[in-house]
């Protein structure tokens, strides 16, 4: 089963366990967020929304918040000794899709537990 969601003015085709970067959304790292603008629910019998599918949503776990690559906007007017250099970085959120929900269902899968680092026990010096 797949879904086409819309967030941040862009559309994404997602399936469970997909990891994607979208524009920054509210939510702490490790929490589950629901994305409600589902345009298409695919599977054996696809459901097309007009404009969205009623009662459908996608549950996703927030993995991290980060900044994208730097984009440089450089403008130069030749023979005028005029230059302008500006740059910016997009704010991004990395999500893992946990499940695709229909009929106003609530997420059943919670956030995954973090793996603890295994450290070797220090031997006592005698």
UniProtKB/TrEMBL annotation:
One of its GO terms (molecular function) is rRNA binding. GO terms for biological process: translation. Keywords: Ribonucleoprotein, Ribosomal protein, RNA-binding, rRNA-binding. InterPro entries: bL21-like (IPR028909), bL21-like_sf (IPR036164), Ribosomal_bL21 (IPR001787). One of its GO terms (cellular component) is ribosome. This protein binds to 23S rRNA in the presence of protein L20. Residues 105-126 are annotated as: Disordered. PANTHER family: 50S RIBOSOMAL PROTEIN L21, LARGE RIBOSOMAL SUBUNIT PROTEIN BL21M. The keyword Signal does not apply. Transmembrane segments: none annotated. The keyword rRNA-binding applies. HAMAP family: Ribosomal_bL21. Belongs to the bacterial ribosomal protein bL21 family. SUPFAM superfamilies: L21p-like (SSF141091). This is Large ribosomal subunit protein bL21. It holds the Pfam family Ribosomal_L21p. It comes from the Bacteria. Part of the 50S ribosomal subunit. Contacts protein L20.
């Amino acid at each position: 089963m797949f879904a086409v969601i819309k967030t941040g003015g862009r559309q994404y085709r997602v399936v469970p366990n997909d990891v994607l970067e979208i524009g920054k959304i509210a939510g702490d790292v490790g929490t589950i967020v629901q994305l409600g603008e589902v345009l298409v629910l695919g599977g054996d019998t696809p459901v097309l929304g007009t404009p969205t599918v009623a009662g459908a949503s996608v549950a996703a776990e927030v993995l991290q918040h980060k900044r994208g690559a730097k984009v440089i906007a450089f403008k130069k007017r030749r023979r005028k000794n005029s230059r302008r250099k500006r740059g910016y970085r997009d704010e991004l959120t990395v999500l893992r899709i946990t499940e695709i929900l229909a009929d106003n269902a609530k997420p059943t899968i919670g956030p995954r537990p973090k793996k603890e680092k295994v450290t070797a026990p220090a031997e006592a010096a005698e």
